[in-house]
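Hey, can you fold this one?
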Amino acid sequence: MGVMQVSRKVDYALRAAIYLATQDLKKTCSSTGEIAEIQRIPKKFLEKIIQDLVRSGLVKSKRGPDGGYSLARPSHEISFQDVIEAIEGPIALNVCLDSKGSCDLLSRCTMSGVWQEVQHKVVDVFARTTLADVKMIPCHACSPFSSFSSAA
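Sure. Predicted structure:
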C-alpha cells in the first residue's frame, strides 16, 4: 500500500539539521563524517544534502582543522518548513496545490478543498516547529503530534 511520506532526502536533512542544533550550544563545527556516522546517513548523500542547506543559508561551512558545518542561525529561528523547502522547494501535498496550477481539473475538482485544508495544516505544523523544539526530545519518548494536536 502506498503511503504519503516525507522523502528520504528530507528525513536525512532534518536529522542532520537537528544534530547541528544540538551542537550549537558547544559552538563547534561538525564534519559530514561525524553527522553521517551518528545519524546513520550515507556520507555521500549527506554531502549533497549539506550543500543544499549551505546554499539556502541554513548551514554555514568553516574551512581548516577545526572546520566543518554549523547552523547559520540559532536553532529557534530555523523551522522544519525552512529545511524541507531548502531540499525540495515549496511544499505541495498534491500537484493541484503547487504554485504552477498544474492541474487541468482544478476548476471542477471536488477534492481541492480537502487538499487545501490538509496542506494548510501540514504547512502550519512545519512552519511552527523549529529545530530547537525537537533537538532535546528523544524520538522514542514522544508520541506522534503529542505537542501539536491541541493547536491544530
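The radius of gyration is 17 Å. Let me know if you want another pass with a different chain boundary.
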